[in-house]
Task: inverse folding
């Protein structure tokens, strides 16, 4: 079955850019939307955005000005860049597939998550 | 930012029935967007347990059930078991600002 694995630095300095990669295994990255979701300690998850294998993207309006999601179909990977980070961006970052059944969509599967701390 | 509101915690004895509410607005749950529920065990990623308001994925016990009415939704857990102790999140789609996916504030279920 499809599995996802996040990778990237666990510590980022304030004002710098957070960069993470998600590797998809057990299936092709084609024909689905692929998402980034984060969860601050003790809070509910927050959807960051998604990318389709064609490169079409959609972002959360609250983060849109700082987010870029890209895809590399040759490597079965997609990536997240979040610029001008502050300590408020400290969170567990998950990648997930946006699965569709007819017109119903849900997040499944999820990666195990990677903790990113923003601190000097 | 959590757009959907849930009670912070609920608790019950083994075998009891619990319900968790999820309150949204006219731009998300009330806009006929369906509701999903996820269970998050400690240190794990969220796992889907209800989709399209009332349906359970294969493998999810029928002790879990979902409902939706107006701008709110509910998750019920009947015959509460120790392994149900977890955080639960509702999730939907908000049709404002061009559209985006939203989650609830989360509810911690404690089995006494």
Result:
């Amino acid at each position: 079955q499809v599995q996802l694995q996040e990778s990237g630095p666990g510590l980022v300095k304030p004002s710098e850019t957070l960069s993470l990669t998600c590797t998809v295994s057990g299936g092709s990255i084609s024909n689905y939307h692929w998402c980034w979701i984060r969860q601050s300690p003790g809070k509910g998850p927050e959807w960051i955005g998604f990318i389709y294998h064609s490169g079409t993207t959609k972002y959360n309006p609250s983060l849109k000005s700082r987010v870029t999601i890209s895809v590399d179909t040759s490597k079965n990977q997609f990536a997240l860049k979040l610029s001008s980070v502050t300590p408020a961006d400290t969170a567990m970052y998950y990648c997930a597939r946006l699965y569709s059944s007819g017109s119903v969509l849900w997040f499944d599967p999820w990666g195990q998550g990677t903790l990113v701390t923003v601190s000097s | 930012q959590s757009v959907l509101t849930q009670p912070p915690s609920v608790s019950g004895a083994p075998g009891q029935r619990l319900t968790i509410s999820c309150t949204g607005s006219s731009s998300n749950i009330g806009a006929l967007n369906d509701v999903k529920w996820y269970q998050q065990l400690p240190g794990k990623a969220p796992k889907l347990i209800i989709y399209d308001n009332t349906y359970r994925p294969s493998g999810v016990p029928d002790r879990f059930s979902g409902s939706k009415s107006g701008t709110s939704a509910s998750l019920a857990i009947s015959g509460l078991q120790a392994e149900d102790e977890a955080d639960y999140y509702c999730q939907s789609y908000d049709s404002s600002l061009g559209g985006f996916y939203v989650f609830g504030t989360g509810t911690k279920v404690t089995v006494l």
Remarks:
- Chain B has a mean pLDDT of 95.
- The first strand of chain B starts at residue 9 and ends at 12.
